[in-house]
Design a protein that fits this description.
Elements lengths: L3 E11 L6 E11 L2 E6 L12 E4 L3 E5 L1 E3 L22 H12 L4 H17 L2 E8 L10 H12 L2 E6 L20 H15 L8 E5 L9 H14 L3 E5 L4 H8 L3 H8 L6 E5 L5 H10 L2 E4 L2 H5 L7 H7 L3 E3 L12 H14 L11 H15 L16 E5 L12 H7 L8 E4 L2 E5 L2 E2 L4 H12 L5
Parallel strand pairs: 1-4, 1-5, 6-7, 7-8, 8-9, 10-11, 11-12, 12-13
Antiparallel strand pairs: 1-2, 2-3, 5-14, 14-15, 15-16, 16-17
Helix pairs in contact: 2-3, 2-14, 4-5, 11-12, 12-13
Length: 459
């Protein structure tokens, strides 16, 4: 793999492990999958054979974004007026949308993954975690295999969350029978995926996470067996927590969700939960003490959250926080860059009403980079420094959009927002998106194939 020399970058956000700082008017050199050097006049010396030199004048270069929660398959149910949250109660919405989910085919799961990954890459995301919990019986068990296929198409770093639902609707879940699995089925496929795809090596492009959908839609034994498998195989765990389900869990198990998960062992440095918007400060402190992380998804707060997630408290208590897009059923785009801006602005909306101050805007970029890397157990991504993976994106700031903003690259994304695709996205040392094109791919063909798959879905 040839390296790249980005010459004369206007700014590079460097982080050598002690926090990000802005390095002005420097070059960035990659070699294979990694960053080799960041500094002045790197092109003056001898470069590794095959190095591609590129003028980066005016570019702000950022670490690639790390998405920590999504449901790719939901890209096929977005922007549907009949599914508008504002017109339906949560129960009505679930009863209407889950039967649609249950009709998706294997090809739908593949093309919806292509759709989500394409949008993420265009907007600077280089590592994606997807929580794929929908396994309709007719679609088979190779849905995550097809997601890895989609990731290979783009060259995207992909962490697959193998989700699942085991509790029937007749026993209190919201899941149609067509989407149910047994605990044994779920655990067996998790084990198969780990054996087939999970790669713990540095710069790994494929990893697997054991991720039962949520406690309200699974038997207790599903979580118990998930913990046993994940700890035996040394992989991470993930689920939905703190979405208003705690009263139900209290009725069923005599405790709220955080205590329930901790009792089962589904907590710790190898575990992260999605959402957590309705948790008490006591519960957040308990998670911080155990090392359990949070994938904060700001966009759904606008549509379905009863309250704005208390990120200032999470930060004050020392929780590990990452950002996620969430699925298109509660966020109609897959733009993690936009989530940084939304997350910051939502917290500003609540300033003065919380016990803790809003973190500085640069922290919200950190949640989407080093924070996400921490949740995914990665020490080789999330920041720009020699030896780190060459995952990055660049914005050419020589545009009217950025007049008056260029003095502070660290706060730019959170405070101003980026309203267009990146000028370049690089993953593992390979440029995958540049100047409005996916390198080596025909976007028009990908679009047509995805639309054709979407047309097979009955709404």
């Amino acid at each position: 793999m040839a390296g790249h020399l980005l010459k004369n970058c206007a700014a590079v956000l460097v982080d050598e492990g002690k926090g990000a700082f802005v390095h002005r008017n420097v070059d960035l050199l990659t070699n294979g999958p990694a960053i080799q050097a960041i500094g002045e006049n790197l092109g003056a010396g001898e470069l590794p054979a095959g190095t591609i030199v590129q003028d980066a004048t005016g570019w702000f270069v950022y670490p690639g974004l790390v998405n920590t929660h999504h449901h790719f398959f939901q890209c096929f149910v977005r922007n549907r007026a009949a599914l508008d949250w504002t017109k339906l109660s949560v129960i009505e919405w679930l009863d209407r949308i889950y039967p649609i989910f249950s009709r998706l085919t294997e090809d739908c799961f593949y093309h919806s993954s292509v759709t989500a990954m394409a949008e993420m890459i265009k907007h600077g995301c280089t590592t994606a975690f997807d929580h794929q919990y929908n396994f309709p019986r007719h679609a088979g068990k190779r849905l995550i295999d097809r997601q890895f296929e989609a990731a290979d198409l783009f060259g995207m770093r992909f962490h697959a969350g193998r989700g699942g639902n085991t509790l029937p609707k007749s026993e209190g879940s919201t899941i149609p029978d067509a989407m149910l699995e047994t605990t044994d089925e779920f655990i067996a496929d998790c084990a198969r995926l780990i054996d087939t795809y999970h790669d713990k090596s540095r710069y790994s492009m494929r990893q697997v996470v054991v991720a039962p959908c949520q406690p309200v839609n699974c038997y207790r034994e599903t979580f118990v067996e998930s913990v046993a498998l994940a700890r035996d195989r040394g992989v991470l765990m993930h689920t939905h927590v703190g979405e208003g389900e705690s009263p139900v869990i209290r009725v069923r198990h005599g405790m709220r969700t955080v205590d329930y998960c901790e009792e089962l062992g589904f907590a710790g440095p190898d575990t992260f939960y999605a959402h957590c918007w309705e948790l008490s400060h006591e519960e957040l402190r308990k998670m911080a003490a155990s090392g359990t992380g949070v994938a904060h998804c700001p966009q759904p707060v606008y549509l379905v959250g009863a309250e704005v997630t208390d990120i200032p408290a999470m930060s004050a208590f020392g929780l590990r926080v990452g950002l996620g897009c969430d699925g298109a059923a509660s966020n109609d785009n897959s733009n993690l860059m936009h989530c940084i801006h939304s997350a910051y602005m939502l917290q500003c909306l609540m300033a003065g009403t919380r016990a803790h101050p809003v973190p500085p805007p640069g922290d919200f970029l950190r949640y989407a980079t080093t924070g996400g890397a921490s949740l995914l157990g990665r020490r080789d991504i999330g920041r720009l420094a020699p030896g780190m993976a060459a995952d990055l994106f660049a914005i050419d700031t020589r545009r009217m959009d950025y007049v008056g903003t260029r003095h502070d690259p660290l706060s730019l994304i959170a405070k101003v927002g980026i309203g267009m695709p990146t000028d370049m996205t690089m993953i593992n040392g390979r440029i995958v998106w540049q100047m409005g094109e996916f390198i080596g791919l025909d976007e028009a063909r990908l679009f047509a194939e995805a639309e054709a798959a979407l047309a097979t879905v009955e709404f």
